[in-house]
Amino acid sequence: MKLKKIFIYLAIACCNGTGDVLLKRGMDDLGEIHLNNLTHIFSAFVNPWIVVGILFLAGFFYSYLTALSWADLTFVLPATAFGYVVTAFLSRFFLHEAVSPWRWAGVLLITCGVGLVARGPSLTERREANQLAAQKEQHELA
């Protein structure tokens, strides 16, 4: 795998996990949002934790689109699941959340699944339409 692809997958995992954790940190400052007071949500957009979280999630989205431009969705989407590992670690050590052994086991299982997906091809091989037409023509002549 090329260094560029590794960098994009790391950016996907780190930006996604970090962005989610920063949003949670900002929402802890803001407090609970109630349906009868939806205008309260707009105060979130001036919270620095939420603003930086949104920027990280924009970085995730950019990296995700980049990966989708050269790899199959069935390869990229499971590879993005590594973001759960980043989220679990940041939640435990930055947000000081309790992460149960069952959740750590789930993180390990996700990591193993990402490893399995990463071993396969990232792009489905497709033949050009012209090559298919030429083969069909050769078959008809034979």
Helix content: over 70%
What form results from the Cα inertia axes? Answer: elongated
Mean of pLDDT: 85
Provide the low-confidence segments as ranges: none
Distance between the termini: 41 Å
How much strand?
under 5%
Estimated structural class: mainly alpha
**Count, helices:** 6
**SSE run:** HHHHHH
Total domains = 1
Q: Rg, please?
A: 21 Å
Largest sheet descriptor: none
Number of strands: 0
Keywords:
mainly alpha; 142 residues; elongated
Folded structure, characterized:
The chain is mainly alpha-helical. It has one domain. The chain has six helices and no strands. It has helices at 3-30, 48-70, 73-80, 83-93, 101-119, 129-141. The longest helix has 28 residues, at 3-30. It starts with a helix and ends with a helix. The model has no long low-confidence stretch (mean pLDDT 85).
Helix-strand layout with pairing:
Layout: H1 3-30, H2 48-70, H3 73-80, H4 83-93, H5 101-119, H6 129-141
Could you provide a short overview of the structure?
The protein is mostly helical and 142 residues long. It has 6 helices and no strands.
